[in-house]
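Q: Given only this backbone (208 positions), what sequence would you predict?
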C-alpha cells in the first residue's frame, strides 16, 4: 500500500519570499495606500513598495511598525510555521476600564472579542463615540446598556444586536453589575448576520 506523502515544511527562503505578497494583500484589504502607510509607520513609501514586491528583505525594524499599524502579531506578517500546538493563547487587553479578549487573529475582515465590563457601585454616564464599521453583540451574562443614536436599550443574557458604529454609541452596565458579551466587529461594509429568515431582522437589530 502506498504511504501518503508528507508535506515538507517551508524553507526560510520560501517563508521570506511570501512576506511581500502577504503585506500587500493585508494593506489592500485594509484600504490603505502606500503613502498613508508611510505616514503612519515612518517607513518611506519606496521602502514599503520594495518590501511588498520582494525587492527588500523584511527585517524586524521594518515589520514592527507594520505589525503595530495593522494590529496583528508578527507571526501573522511572516507566516511563521505552526508549532503543532492548536491552542489559542489569549492575551486580554484593558481599554476604557473594560477587558477585551481577542478570540481570532486573522488580519482584516471580521474580528471577534469577548468583552468584560466590570461591576461598579454606580453605573457610568454614557459618553457616546463613533468610528467606521459594524458591530454585532451577544450578551453572555449581566444586563448590558447600549446607547446608539437616539435609542437607549437594555439587553439581558441571550440577546443579540447589530448596529452601525458610525452612529454615536456607548456600552455599559445597565445596573452596575458585571457584564460579559461577545463582539464581532467588521470594517465598513462588513456585517455579521445571524438570522433564520432573511426577510426578518433579528430581535433588537438597529439599522442605520
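A: Predicted residues:
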Amino acid at each position: 500500500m502506498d504511504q501518503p506523502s508528507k508535506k515538507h515544511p517551508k524553507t526560510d527562503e520560501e517563508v521570506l519570499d511570501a512576506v511581500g505578497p502577504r503585506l500587500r494583500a493585508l494593506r489592500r484589504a485594509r484600504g490603505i495606500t502606500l503613502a498613508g502607510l508611510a505616514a503612519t509607520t515612518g517607513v518611506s513609501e519606496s521602502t514599503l513598495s520594495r518590501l511588498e514586491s520582494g525587492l527588500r528583505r523584511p527585517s524586524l525594524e521594518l515589520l514592527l511598525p507594520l505589525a503595530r499599524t495593522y494590529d496583528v502579531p508578527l507571526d501573522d506578517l511572516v507566516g511563521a510555521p505552526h508549532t503543532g500546538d492548536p491552542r489559542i493563547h489569549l492575551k486580554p487587553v484593558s481599554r476604557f476600564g473594560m477587558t477585551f479578549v481577542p478570540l481570532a487573529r486573522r488580519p482584516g475582515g471580521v474580528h471577534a472579542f469577548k468583552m468584560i465590563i466590570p461591576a461598579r457601585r454606580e453605573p457610568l454616564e454614557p459618553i457616546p463615540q463613533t468610528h467606521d464599521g459594524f458591530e454585532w453583540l451577544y450578551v453572555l451574562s449581566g444586563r448590558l446598556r447600549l446607547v446608539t443614536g437616539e435609542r437607549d436599550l437594555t439587553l439581558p443574557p441571550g440577546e443579540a444586536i447589530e448596529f452601525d458604529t458610525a452612529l454615536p454609541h456607548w456600552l455599559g452596565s445597565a445596573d452596575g453589575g458585571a457584564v460579559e458579551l461577545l463582539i464581532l466587529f467588521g470594517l465598513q461594509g462588513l456585517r455579521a448576520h445571524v438570522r433564520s429568515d432573511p426577510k426578518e431582522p433579528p430581535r433588537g437589530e438597529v439599522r442605520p
